[in-house]
């Protein structure tokens, strides 16, 4: 009995003398040492093996990557600046994984040391495995997806952002020449150099007009047709709905190419069979930016309204007829019922999707490029008369090889869309109501 009491007293003294700060310092010096100090031998050895394996495998690669991303090479013809930039970004991602692992290692060692000091008894190996599996199971399932997202979304985004701060273009293209870091010079040139400034202002203005007008028109047309077809006096509703949704059934690029042929200045059906016989004029649909922009807005309205029509039709079916009957009893007119019942209900239910329509059209590359490749050309500008920001980026990238400026404009596009979306979502009533539930 006295020996048992002596052992218990000695064990209690050891736990009281167990110092969490020592575990913290050891885990900072090398992953796993803090766990060994806590007598968590399996976990400690596993952490040590992981760190040693990382050092042996990636030490040289990370050294090259960090050197490469800081210098982008020093010997033209030998060092490839873009490869070095890629190595550097991958190295940063790997270091982020290591830092996350190290933070977990330090916190684990320190917290367990505190528990041991308070008298906590470590579970058996079998219990530890079961507990660890239960806690880590969700992370094990999501880890592959997280890694995939990092290397397919985050990494390309980091690469594009990095290019925006370099001078990577046709004249500074590796391996013959080195790429250099230029800071915010591309953004400064965008607002100070006359050619870039005039082009940016023109393209940006048209992008805003295009987004607001084309999207608002397709929403207005979709709402008008949905309300009209939903009227109780309309017969053959299913047939009418089917006909109105037909433009949505045809692939968008096919419709755009057909419209491009129809509006051709020389042989298009619009000029040849409609404008000339009826009005005696032939309009420059593809050679005058003003007319081309009008046509693009009309085509986008045609292509976009079926989705809005189908969306609003479904919402209108959910509005109770009792509301309209009560409004009629109160003497409300058709306009008052629409303004006070139909419109608020529809907008509340569809606001997030309508916001997405605006952000989608802001970057609607397909129609701009397929209809007229962003043309016609405009004197004194490096973009076409109907180019929006995203199609201008495409032209800078694949036609003039001005990669750094294209990346800078892409960064501006991303910031604008993100700010707009976040602001609108926060102001949307449906999201406010969702947050209160």
UniProtKB/TrEMBL annotation:
GO function terms (MF aspect): ABC-type maltose transporter activity
Domain of life per record: Bacteria
Organism listed in the record: Halalkalibacter hemicellulosilyticusJCM 9152
Role this protein plays: Part of the ABC transporter complex MalEFGK involved in maltose/maltodextrin import. Probably responsible for the translocation of the substrate across the membrane.
Topology term for the membrane: Multi-pass membrane protein
Keyword Protease belongs to the record: no
Protein name: Maltose/maltodextrin transport system permease protein
Residue span, ABC transmembrane type-1 domain: 204-424
